[in-house]
Design a protein that fits this description.
By secondary structure, this protein is α/β, with parallel strands linked by helices. About 30% of the residues lie in helices and about 20% in strands. It starts with a strand and ends with a helix. The structure holds (4S)-2,6-dioxohexahydropyrimidine-4-carboxylic acid (DOR) and zinc ion (ZN).
């Protein structure tokens, strides 16, 4: 974008540059031109000034795990509706999962998602391609062509890759293109068609459970594969980790310097399987909600730096489908639009992270996982910026979501941390409406 935009006197938090101080950010022609105390002379030369006093100014947030349902299930979400939700939530980049209908499994599919993202003109839309054709776990998808088309990772998310030989091939092949392989760790044998966490609540509810072992067994297996592959550019990312034992496996693998990263989703920090006790399908998610011990282990891992990214796993579904009985309803929680507030509640309010720590896990490190040159406000970078009112408190109202879906268990929760403005490539793509902006 042509022109000059000055963001004045905000608290600029840019963990990649160890920066946390009150200053200005100057954007020229869509790029970060200067960060510092720029003074009135600069102000006179710019087209637009944003007064950011009392606000946080951070690198644009990046969500590396969303489901935008296009192609195939546009009534649940489209790339356009999801993109609108994303910028309203402060995300300047998102990564779409490939479990659409048809599956994103070749270069044309990847280009299709990119084109729809560009047309939406809201957030940067990236995509991971499938590891295997039709997510069947048997034959590798066109990973090379998808990488050339710009896929930022590969995953069969929604399912784990069951066959170790297929997974080993995928890790080796992806390494040739320096693209990350992301795994939904779930061994189907242990998961056993379960619909919630296996434990006390699944027993009293009479529902089949998914044992934590399902996650841990596949994760353990993949770590053994990683140890044996030893390819310089092999990279493995664990999606939505949910159990204390999974945390322990990742902690150990990192100590051994294996090329492993992981993400956590908000529901695994805020909700336990006890919430399923009323058979409310808004709490049906995969991996399932676990126990308090698991939550504590995840939080501990976050405080120690074992977790690399906070993602949402935004998984929109139709109300008519979520109204089915617990056994039949689809897995998934739509949380993109309230993610920041949820993370503030789970991590900042209890003192597990400070703001620089949170932004590191919501911008800097996610960018590194998917290998894009983003996640910081360094001079010369594309100007993706999020302006946040850290103190503003508000009630989550699913009826106000830009997302097409409402399957969100946080309706009526009060959270802190509101997105004021989202700037993508130097353009203001979202501004909070005046009326709600001042609400305290
Ligand atoms: O809860 C989930 N929903 N987990 C997944 O792995 C898939 C996702 C979806 O696509 O709805
Ligand atoms: Zn997912």
């Amino acid at each position: 974008m042509a022109g000059k935009l000055l963001i004045k006197s905000g608290r600029v938090v840019d963990p990649a540059n160890d920066l946390d101080k009150k200053c200005d950010v100057l954007i020229i022609d869509g790029k970060i031109a200067e960060v510092g105390d720029l003074g009135p002379v600069v102000e006179e030369t710019v087209e637009e000034v944003i007064d950011a006093r009392g606000k946080l100014v951070t690198p644009g947030l990046i969500d590396i795990h969303v489901h935008f349902r296009e192609p195939g299930d546009e009534e649940e979400e489209t790339i356009a509706s999801g993109s609108m939700a994303a910028v309203a939530a402060g995300f300047t980049s998102v990564v779409c999962m490939p479990n659409t209908n048809p599956v994103i499994e070749n270069e044309t599919d990847v280009e299709y998602v990119h084109r729809k993202g560009r047309q939406a003109r809201k957030t940067h839309v990236y995509v991971m391609g499938a590891i295997t054709k039709r997510l069947e776990g048997v034959e590798l998808a066109e990973m090379g062509l998808m990488a050339e088309a710009g896929a930022v990772g590969f995953t069969d998310d929604g399912r784990g890759v069951q066959d170790p030989a297929v997974m080993r091939r995928a890790l080796k092949y992806a390494a040739m293109f320096d693209v990350v392989v992301a795994q939904h760790c779930q061994d189907d044998g242990f998961a056993d068609d379960g619909v919630m966490n296996s434990g006390y609540y699944s027993t009293i509810l009479g529902l089949p459970g998914i044992d934590g072992l399902a996650e841990e067994a596949m994760l353990w297996r993949d770590i053994q594969l990683l140890k044996r592959i030893q390819l310089e550019r092999a990279r493995y990312h664990v999606q939505h980790i949910s159990t204390a034992a999974a945390v322990e496996l990742i902690r150990t693998a990192k100590k051994e310097s294996l090329p492993i990263t992981c993400e956590v989703a908000p529901h695994h920090l805020l909700l336990t399987d006890e919430f399923c006790a009323e058979y409310d399908t808004n709490y049906k998610v995969n991996p399932p909600l676990r126990g308090q011990r698991d939550i504590e282990a995840l939080k501990q891992a976050i405080s120690e730096g074992v977790v690399d990214a906070l993602a949402t796993d935004h998984a929109p579904h139709l109300q008519s489908e979520k109204e089915l009985e617990f056994l039949a309803a689809p897995f998934g929680i739509a949380s993109l639009e309230c993610a920041l507030g949820l993370y503030v509640k789970a991590l900042i309010e209890p003192g597990i992270l400070d703001w620089p720590g949170l932004i590191r896990l919501m911008a800097e490190k996610p960018a590194r996982i998917i290998g894009v040159d983003k996640g910081t406000l360094s001079k010369g970078k594309q100007a993706d910026v999020t302006i946040i009112d850290a103190e503003a408190e508000y009630k989550i109202d699913v009826n106000k979501f830009r997302s097409k879906s409402r399957n969100c268990p946080y309706h009526d929760w009060t959270v802190k941390g509101k997105v004021e403005k989202t700037i993508v490539g130097g353009e203001i793509r979202f501004q909070a409406p005046e009326s709600v902006r001042s609400s305290g």
